[in-house]
Design brief:
The structure holds two protein chains of two kinds. Chain A is mainly α. Chain A has one domain. Chain A has helices spanning 15-38, 40-68, 76-96, 100-109, 112-117, 124-128, 133-152, 159-190, 194-204, 216-225, 228-239, 245-271, and strands at residues 5-8, 11-14, 70-71, 74-75. In chain A, the strands form two sheets. In chain A, strands 1-2 form a two-stranded antiparallel sheet. The radius of gyration of chain A is 20 Å and the shape is globular. In chain B, helix 1 (2-17) crosses helix 6 and helix 2 runs antiparallel to helix 3. Chain B is mainly α. Chain B has eleven helices and two strands; from the N terminus they run H-H-E-E-H-H-H-H-H-H-H-H-H. Chain B has one domain. The chains are: A mainly alpha, B mainly alpha. Chains A and B meet through helix 2, strand 3 and helix 9 of A and helix 2 and helix 8 of B.
Amino acid sequence: MVGKKFSIFNFQFSIRSIRKLIKIWLLIASRVAQIQLMTGWGGFAFLLGKIIRFLFFFVFIFSVLSKTRSLVGYSREQVVLFFLVFNLIDISTQALFRGVYQFRRLVVEGDYDFDLLRPLPSFFRPIFGWTDILDIITLIPLGIYFWLFVVRNNLFVNSASVLIFILLFANSMVLGFSLHLAICAVCVLTTEIDHLIWIYRDVTNTGRFPTDIYSKGIQYFLTFGVPVIILMTIPAEALLGLLTWRGMMLSIVVTAVFFLLSWKFWRYSLSRYTSASS
Amino acid sequence: MRKYFSLFLISLQEYFTYRLSFVLWRVRSLVSFLVLLFFWLAVYSQTSSFAGYQKSQMFTYVIGVAFLRGLIFATRSNVLASWIRDGGLNIILIRPLSVFKVLLSRDLADKLLNVGFVILEIFLIAKIFNLSLFLPKSFLTIVCFLIFLALAFFLNFFISIVISLTAFWTDDIWAVRFLFGVIFLELFSGALFPIDILPGGLKNVLFWTPFPYLVYFPLKVWLGQANRGEITRIILVCAAWTILFVWLAKRLWDKGYKEYGAYGG
């Protein structure tokens, strides 16, 4: 098994090379954590801001749903669950793929050339070059609360729904990776990334509430255009036992298509990379 | 005055040079607006009144937020923090210009363009969703709303300046801006939803901060949900907050200016 190799992104993967990549990622992540935690006040302000934002939305949803009792057919607890799953996935993708926010500087200043010379997959530094320790710190209490909320409110359907949720959570990570890779590809071609990543963030915010609140046309866009429904809503539906097999298969197929298209686009963008400022 | 008017025109020209950036910024604002709109459409599909807000009042509130985001929140004064850290401030200091007036000229250009686009967007969305808007019954309410807008405009400008001026003493300018200029501003001002939906204790804490005077209270006045006594009180409190932040900005500037090392300029 250790010797078996497969090739993705023109990089020969084997169990050994994956272990090496994880080791490199851990090294980078620990360095970044030191930088983030070194500026104590800055790290504290970011962490406090994220917690306040989460709590504020939580109280808002609870207050609204305490008065209306339901939203588009979902109970208060179910709507809160959608919100919690949204936060889990949103914070996980941000924690892991934060490197995208630094990528423009690498391209503009030409430093990305050095990364291309290294024996690493071309996407490694753009996507995984910065891991946000503050998001990871936020994820720990959020994950614990999420689980307690599911158990206490009897939202736990059966073990199969939990397994499907975990599978679809992983699927969301792959989809999140694909979307971030596509944004990096646009950055290589145009050096524009800031607005694009923020538009992506704003569109994903539509997943904060059950996406049934949107009109059919917008729901199609959120499934096949910027697939927020696949990313955020479907894993929550799976946990609640509301997801059909068709929905699950659609989710996996859409992710596979986005993954392949993003990869093709990334390769195309690299073929156009001029390393102009190096 | 003419030199500041020239700066205002130059700032406008900058926007027309970087058109894509501006369009993408408008797309972002539109997406945030639509998320809120759809949420309230879903809530009002099962009720005609919620937390004391009739349907037309709530949609007027959401539209009012979009308008006030363009008029009050749109600002370029955050650039002052970068100028202080990278020495860009030097170029202003050696010229016969007031830093605050330079930033105000840039802000006015920013607001003019944003408000122009917001009005167009609101008109289109109100037509598409067939939204009926709540209009004030008396002329006095409109006058009070306009007074509020003027005060909120300067209050936000000086809050932003005070946040930027912390750059004289800290490198973490983005952390300070994120906490006070994004999180507190967005959440505590009522820019996401009317604050009186929140539980009483939390609501009362927020009323002790300057942020609700930027969005929530002006819109309460427009919606006719404040009587004359309350309007007078909240206008006076808003004026007091504005004076406090003008004083704070001047004091921080005087203190910071003396410590300014002009690195990198």
